[in-house]
Amino acid sequence: MGAQKILFGLLAVLSLMGCELFAPTRTAEEIAKEKFENLDLSSVDVYPTFGECELVPVDRDEEWKCFKNKLLERLQGSLDEHHWTTRQILVDTLYLTLLIDNQGTPYIEQLETTERVTAHLPELEAALDQGIDELPKIYAARKTVKYNESSEEIPVSVTMTLSLVIKTI
What we know:
5 helices; elongated; alpha+beta; two-stranded antiparallel ribbon
């Protein structure tokens, strides 16, 4: 009778665990594919940021505003270090498309400028490149991926376009 109880107990345990033991295992690739399918790529959950902007109270819009303002301040400071000379008065708006990759590294993807600005300030793009290179550490944008009952934040690349007003006096 004792052996029957042990056998019955063992069968009961195996029947409860049986589904788990014999379920097909999923590969990391299958799990990653499922996570990617649930990923909304039209927006980010956490914008890229500088360390000093993370001190802003946990308000996503305020953190983003801090990042944009610090970025523009730093670029302006970098341009101010150059002593531009031109005989022309220039008042133009340029558009700088900036890529911040999933490691937080910024790159100038495109600079839309006018022929006048290019003719009178030929070093402008190099100066902007230098300003981008001298930026403090940027923490990459993050996207939350939901998978089963859990979620995880993954770093993602973002592209942004900044308007830069060039005025010479």
